[in-house]
Structure formats: C-alpha cells, structure tokens
Amino acid sequence: MMKKLIARLDDFFYKVILKNLLKTSKLGYGTIITGAESGVNFEHMYNNHPEGKFIIGRFIDKVLLNLPAVHATRGRKDDIKKIIWNEVQNNRLLGKKTRVLDLASGSARYLRELADEHRNGDIESVCIDKDKDCVSLGEKLAANENLKNVRFLKGDIFQLDHLRKLSSRQEWIPNIVVASGLFIYFNDNDVEKMIKEVYEFLPENGLIIFSSYENLNTRKLMRKTMSTSSGEKWTLYYRKPEHWISLLNRIGYRYPFIFRDRWEMNNIIVGRK
After folding, report:
1. In sequence order, what are the residues at sequence separation of 6 or more whose Cβ sits closer than 8 angstroms to the Cβ of residue 101?
2. Which residue, of 69, 102, 119, is where some domain finishes?
3. Domain match, 113 and 224 both
4. Which residues contact 250 (CB under 8 A, 6 or more apart)?
5. In the chain, how many domains are there?
6. Would 100 disulfide with which of 3, 9, 106, 176, CB 3.0-4.6 Å?
7. The pTM is what?
8. What pLDDT digit, counting tens, does each position of 202-251 carry?
9. Are strands 207-213 and 176-179 parallel, antiparallel or unpaired?
10. Looking at residue 231, which CATH number applies to its domain?
C-alpha cells in the first residue's frame, strides 16, 4: 500500500508539478510540447543562452542547459566535428572531396559549422530527415549563414536503397555517413539492419560515424516528463562499447573504435568499410 502511494506521489510530482514548471523554460517547453528530439531544441542547447517566461522560466532554462546530459550533447557535436574534419584532411591529401550523408540530421549543426569554418569546398553534405519542420529549419539556418555546400532533404532513413539509386543518378556518392542520436531510439535488430545497409551503401574506405548512449543521468526526468515529436513515450536504448565493437566487426567494418565522453554518457562510434 505504501509503495503504491509513494509511486503515485512520485508520478504527481514529475507529471504535474515539475512538468508545468519545465514548460516555463524554452528547453523544457520544447522537449515536452514539440518533442525532445526536435532540431529546435538541439539548436537551443548548442546556443546555450537561457530563455523562458518570466524570471522563473529563465532560471529553469539555465539549470536545464547546465545539466551534465546537455553538456554531453554539446560535447558530442564537437567530437563528431573533429572526426569529420580529420577525415576531410585525409581525403584532401588523397585528392578526394569529402561527401557526408547525415541520417536523421535535424538541423545538422556540426555540418553547418564545418561548412562555415571551411568554405573552400572540401566538404559537401546532404542532410536527410523525415520531419519537414527539421528540414525547413536546416534550410533556413543554412541560408541565413550563406552556406553553399549543405543541402537538406525530406526522406525516409529506412529507405537507403532509394537514396543509393538517387546518389547514383546524380553521381554524388557519400564517403561518410553520420547518424548522430539516431540508433538510441531503435531496437538491436533495426539498428543492425540499418548499419548493414550503410555498409553496403558506402564505397571502399568509407566511414560510418554514429553516437550511442551508454548512460544518462536524466533518464527518469526524460521518461516521466518528455515525449517524442510523434507523441510516443520517450524510450531510449542504452548500449555498452563492447556491443558496438562486436557488431561492427561482425558486419565487416575495419578498425572500429569508440570515443567515450568525459561524462561517460555518449559514445561516438566509428568504423571504416
């Protein structure tokens, strides 16, 4: 009886009191109303400027933006940028242009920053997302930043065969495929299928880069107060580095390696065909 009462009080605190308080902040409102995985929310986390209704909203937003999980999200973006830029430099030495396909890209902040910092045309990016609002946001931001080598397209990431045919027709074959924050939403079978399709899609020596959660210290907060853009319950899959090393080796990727962030939350996994 007491356990049920404590559980009900816990639900009331998170789903009524805390949830309504969070809505006064920009990040809290976005993660609850528009979906925690929305590109708008990630842009706000990257910008790191507290906003909200009244003083309380801005205060809560500041607290949210300083959570370790949000610091880890900003760190993930910077780590992916470093890995891609290292590959750009290697390709330059080989006389090759770097072409990046970003799956479930959102607004692709890391690719936009790379395009802005290196405007000599060494890197071209195509960003695919099923959400038309994310595509529109990416297009708007890229236009405002006067970026020429970043394109945003609406597409189904589960139809890589269609993307392969489109790439062949346009003679634009990516040598890097990025999937940041994608596989955390899918079970092992779906993830293995997608990674296999990416392997078949990549040219020889092509690179896959993706992120995975090993741990998240805000998982209870997210589970009880937030939802996805489709309105579904917020469910994430957590996987250890050993899982990814074994999977990439089994599929055929060479030299798989993992960057673990200092918060031990995000892992960046890299494999070469």
Report:
1. 125, 126, 128, 163, 174, 176, 177, 178
2. 69
3. yes
4. none
5. 2
6. 176
7. 0.88
8. 999 999 999 998 887 666 666 656 655 555 566 788 999 999 999 999 99
9. parallel
10. 3.40.50.150
